[in-house]
Amino acid sequence: MPLDRASIAHAADGPGLSCHRHLCRSEIDAFSRAARDPGKLLVACTQEEPVFREAAAVDAGAADLHFTNIRERAGWSAQAADAGPKMAALLAEAMVEPVPTAALPVRSDGRVLVRGDADVALAAARQLAGRLAVTCVVDGFGDTQPPAVADFALFAGRAAAAQGHVGSFAVRFSDVSAPRPASRARLEPATLHQTMEVECDVVLDLSRRPALFPGKPPRDGYVRVDPGDPVAVQKALFEVADMVGEFEKPRYVVVDTAICAHSRNNITGCTKCLDACPTAAITPADDAVQVDALACGGHGACNSLCPTGAIQYQVPRQQDQFERLRVLLGTYAKAGGERPVLLLHDRHGTQAVDLLARHGRGLPANVLPFAINELGSAGPDLYLTAFAQGAARIVLLAMPEHRGTLDHLGGGLELADDLMEGLGYGPDRLALEWVEDPDAFAEALEQPVEPGAPHAGYMVLGGRREAFTAALDHLHAHAPAPVDVLPLDEGAPFGRVVVDTDGCTLCLACVGACPTHALSDNPDRPQLSFAEDACVQCGLCVGTCPEKVVSLEPRIRFGEKTREVIKEEEPFACVVCGTEFATKSAIDRVVEKLAGHSMFSSEEQLNLLKMCADCRVIAQVKASGSSTLAPPPRVRTTDDYLAERAARDPARRKDH
């Protein structure tokens, strides 16, 4: 494959680039010499990574080895001669080292539950029985011949409920029966139990009945395959047989409950992550949500849909992913590349890229592959940041077997496309391509594309809302047709809160419910203010408002980010002590509504409504004539006691 060394070296910012044709074989000594020096050493080959690591170990190399693939992703292409900027970008991106993902310890003692029809489940259980502790629960014994040796627990029953995660599953069965030990020609039920619970580390589900756990793929440790596919069954057996011992599971997401917009005061707001999680690993927890990290499969829909950033994907972290994006697109532009198309894909899409390179025209020179852990984790913050960093178009590479699991991506893609079109960049800047026909996919990548925004070059700092703000500001500043306000469809995570100020009493219930502090008060005076860039349109303010005077308007407002005062009033002072304790409109409204009530028929009674809490109590006690307002008792002295004694004893009084 051709290498544009000058273009790559120019973008690399310094010496250290060496080109080789046969580094893994005849030029292995050159690698060994380079591997002796400490520091990062990047090898542009992933196929021979084991060879290079072995050579470094034999020679006691001190280098921190990294590997990346520029052959299938850039060199094997009909446009390889123009791929110099792309190769430079891929090499620079590979040098960005992400923070290691936090991991959870998982232990499996080899307890396996095999479930399914008797013929398939029993055969699978026999294969596993020599290595694992197997419990087999079949749908029914039927005409199954009894095993010669009962080397695993066998029951018949119907699955009623299941819970847990890898290393700690619990499956409850109903109508359970055990086989008679003396069964002759076929298994005969002996004892009948109402229910039975099986605790296990791994579940192998070969049943044709509904799955025990939702999701595609389901949670780790739950292996479900088609019992009519012998190859799939054998692959599942190999997989289950290896699930023994101690290992680590990535913590795919973390939750910041402080900014979660799920609920406040028993009023439900955002439920996007709850509705989208395919493994049911997310559940409500008071005002926020919680994630069962061991049940989470890393699908990423929660990260894609969360408007506040309360749920953050960690494989890799958002900051590391954005930094890779910045370096990739920035290096491509610096090396002279134009109109980059960002190809988002996960590990499944990597195979499609390799096949296109080996058996087709390969990726065009302006198509930059960008690998993420799960395609389902991509969201509008990633798309808009990519556009701000210079991407002219974004294509998501999806495999056909994932149909039905990526439906949630549609809203984010449509939102980002609407924003780009609304700013004058034109439509169809994003596409979700299902790779069913490789030739059609290759043609889709080769479509001409108009230039996008210039490379911004900023580092993304802060959370999701900060990422949105930085990207939108850059895109608006360089927009072909900038606008001040861009209307959006309902459900968009941007917009403003509209308040009918005539009906608002400044009770500030909405302020207490707002998870992002878009709505806030003023501690010095009755005031309600609003910051539009912080609003996620969760609707908690609408549901909380007792006067029902709040509504939502989805839109994007560009320009200066200032806090807008929605309503403010002069405070109402207590008519007795002058303490400010409420708004004038609220007191006037209460007085107006209660003026005709029998309990407030006199002016004195109405004045109680115009007093602060302390003065109101004092006035009520005075009106009741209670002795609790008597002056405090006088301090008694010795003279008082002597006077009392003299009054009781006249003779002693005469002596004195």
Short characterization:
Pfam families: Fer4_9. The chain contains 22 helices and 29 strands.
What does this structure look like?
This protein has 656 residues and is an alpha/beta fold. Among the domains are: 105-249, 3-Layer(bba) Sandwich (FAD/NAD(P)-binding domain); 251-313, Alpha-Beta Plaits (2-Layer Sandwich), CATH 3.30.70.20; 316-483, Rossmann fold; 495-568, 2-Layer Sandwich (Alpha-Beta Plaits), CATH 3.30.70. It contains 22 helices and 29 strands. Strands 8-7-6-5-4-9-10 form a seven-stranded mixed sheet, covered by helices on one side. Strands 19-18-20-21 form a four-stranded parallel sheet, with helices on both faces. A hairpin with a 2-residue loop joins β6 and β7 (168-179). α1 packs parallel to α5 and α5 runs antiparallel to α10. The protein is extended, with a radius of gyration of 36 Å. The chain starts with a helix and ends with a helix. The model has no long low-confidence stretch (mean pLDDT 92). Residues 636-656 have a biased composition (Basic and acidic residues). It comes from Caenispirillum salinarum AK4.
What are the SSEs and their pairings?
Elements: H1 5-12, H2 28-36, E1 39-43, H3 49-58, E2 63-67, H4 71-75, H5 84-94, E3 103-108, E4 111-116, H6 118-129, E5 133-138, E6 153-165, E7 168-179, E8 189-200, E9 202-206, E10 222-224, H7 230-241, E11 245-250, E12 253-255, E13 263-264, E14 267-268, H8 272-276, E15 282-285, E16 288-291, H9 301-305, E17 311-313, H10 318-334, E18 341-345, H11 347-359, E19 367-371, H12 380-388, E20 393-398, H13 409-422, E21 430-434, H14 438-445, H15 464-477, E22 485-487, E23 495-499, H16 509-513, E24 519-522, E25 525-530, H17 540-544, E26 550-557, E27 564-568, E28 571-573, E29 580-583, H18 584-594, H19 603-607, H20 613-624, H21 638-648, H22 650-655
Helix pairs in contact: 1-5, 5-10, 12-15
Keywords: 4Fe-4S, Iron, Iron-sulfur, Metal-binding
Domain 4Fe-4S ferredoxin-type: 287-316, 495-524, 526-555
Pfam families: Fer4_9
